[in-house]
Design brief:
414 residues, alpha+beta, 2 domains, three-stranded antiparallel sheet, globular
């Protein structure tokens, strides 16, 4: 993309692209930590069987501690996103006013997050008396700020991205960092597997705790179940625990695609949107060109792609490994490792649980591919090891169904 594509981004606002890039780098660090945590060899939680009358319960026995750095980085990333809005607003005020602001006027420059019209009117009234000229009634910049306010949301203004961003950052700055925890997003019995996880009933947004009963099965039954844990973040002053990376993604994309362009231009978001990041660890003679060369794929999207690739890697290793005549697990992993991540994910998604014959043909073809690959590579023994650092640990990756066979037995005599 050429620098001219960002003609809508004025010179005095180039710095905000760097602030956005910094937030994306922080979110990528969060994703790295989560993948490492979720990929622990021993898993992130453990279950035990507990007899309760005529049923056997799968009960949470332990939950792995969350690394302290996760909530600290979450707070840093959210504060950086809020700073991007504040920096853009301040730069626009000084540009429109035509001169640096004095101390009194500068103190009045801040992005409100008003959940009611009355609150926004009170904010405007103070700026009318003491604020810079561009923030006084009737100004174009004031109309831009107005259009971004949560109170325009017809229902649940507290769900607006700006309201959430302000809630998290105020809490992180004045109280404690964000609180994150493992929670169980969904589960199902493998003999009742739905066509899509979307059809599963959502579970309560609560952290997983020792003693939680995950599932029950009749005594004497052997029932495989699939669990889908995730990492939640507590929304301050509420009982909500939305998925952490989804929450970050929604706020980041709103700041990048909606808030900053509209605050800067005063019109519907121009195209192309700001890149998710560009190289900010080095200086640039032509920073506009560096911004234009930045990728649009955000850290949250990259995390999702990596998560899907690890999930697909494990699924294929597991499924092919169960087939008669299949190569060994490390040999299958070596074959999968040489495929692009997107290809691995695509191959798993081709399998249709409603069409067993078609899925079997696909699996047979993949087994033959794996065997042919290993035969060709056997001379240098590359099939005897997995080239992926994640390979040996995949069985415990918690975004993939964690299969547990809950066998009900009479433990009264033990």
């Amino acid at each position: 993309m050429t620098a001219s594509a960002y003609s809508w981004l004025p010179a005095h606002q180039l710095g905000v692209a760097a602030t956005l890039a910094h937030a994306d780098e922080q979110i990528e660090q969060i994703g790295d930590l989560l993948l490492t945590y979720q990929n622990r060899t021993e898993g992130v939680f453990g279950l035990k069987d507990v007899q309760a009358g005529t049923v056997c319960q799968a009960v949470v026995e332990w939950v792995a501690p969350m690394p302290r750095k996760v909530p600290l980085l979450v707070a840093d990333a959210l504060v950086t996103l809020r700073a991007a809005l504040e920096h853009a607003l301040f730069a626009e005020v000084e540009f429109l006013d035509g001169a640096p602001l004095d101390k009194t006027a500068a103190k009045q420059v801040s992005m409100p997050a008003s959940e009611t019209w009355e609150d926004f009117e009170a904010w405007k009234k103070i700026r009318q008396r003491k604020g810079p000229l561009s923030l006084r009634s009737g100004g174009a910049l004031l109309r831009r700020i107005d259009g971004l306010q949560p109170f325009h949301r017809q229902s649940d203004p507290d769900e607006h991205p700006l309201a959430r961003l302000t809630l998290y950052t105020n809490h992180a700055k004045h109280r404690t960092p964000a609180v994150t925890a493992v929670r169980l997003a969904a589960w199902h019995r493998d003999d009742q597997r739905p066509n899509s996880l979307r059809y599963l009933a959502p579970r309560p947004e609560v952290p997983m705790q020792v003693g939680d009963v995950i599932a029950e099965t009749p005594m004497g039954a052997l029932v495989p179940i699939s669990l889908f844990p995730t990492i939640g973040i507590n929304r301050p002053d509420t009982d909500r625990w939305p998925v952490l990376m989804q929450e970050l993604d929604e706020i980041f994309q709103w700041v990048r695609i909606q808030a900053l362009p509209r605050l800067i231009t005063g019109i519907d978001p121009p195209q192309p949107p700001l890149p998710a990041r560009f190289e900010i660890a080095v200086g640039h003679n032509d920073e506009r060109q560096a911004v234009a060369a930045g990728p649009a794929t955000s850290a949250t999207e990259r995390y999702s792609q990596r998560k899907d690739a690890v999930w697909a890697h494990k699924e294929l290793t597991h499924l092919i490994g169960q087939m008669r005549g299949a190569p060994g697990g490390q040999q299958i992993a070596a074959w999968i490792d040489h495929l692009p991540d997107k290809e691995v994910v695509s191959r798993v998604k081709r399998l249709d649980p409603t069409d067993a014959q078609r899925s079997l043909r696909i699996m047979n073809n993949m087994r033959e591919e794996a065997a042919s690959f290993c035969a060709a590579e056997r001379e240098d023994e590359s099939c005897l090891r997995s080239k992926s650092a994640l390979g040996p640990q995949l069985s415990k990756f918690v975004f993939d169904p964690t299969r547990r066979f809950v066998q009900a037995t009479d433990t009264s005599g033990s």
